[in-house]
Amino acid sequence: MKGMSIEERAIKLAQYIIDTKDTVRGAAKRFGISKSTVHKDVSQRLLDINYTLAMEVRKVLDENKAERHIRGGIDRKSVV
Fold first, then answer.
1. What domain count does the chain have?
2. 13 domain-assigned
3. In this structure, is residue 17 part of a structural domain?
4. Domain ranges, residue 40
């Protein structure tokens, strides 16, 4: 991801998430960047760059969130 503009990175991340149906965490690991960066790129920055692509990514992220319990995701705040 080095040498790539923020816009290019956001588009590349979005295309990867859409193509693979991967999670933000999975995309972050795959590209070697933080989850916060992936989330900000595809949730906020992408809206200004390519609105249609942003809406496609949002659908995938919403599906992932809805299926989180099936994959065994645990909300860490609820663990005492």
1. 1
2. yes
3. yes
4. 6-70
- What is the per-residue pLDDT across 47-62, written as a single tens digit (0 to 9) for each? 999 999 999 999 999 9
Cβ neighbours of residue 10 closer than 8 Å, sequence gap 6 or more: 41, 42, 45, 46, 49
**Three-class HEC string of 42-78:** HHHHHHHHCHHHHHHHHHHHHHHHHCHHHHCCCCHHH
Least confidently predicted of 46-55, 58-67, 69-78:
69-78
CA distance 58 to 29: 19
Long-range contacts from 65-71, C-beta under 8 angstroms, 24+ separation: none
pTM higher than 0.85: no
Grade residue 71 by pLDDT with cuts at 50, 70 and 90: low
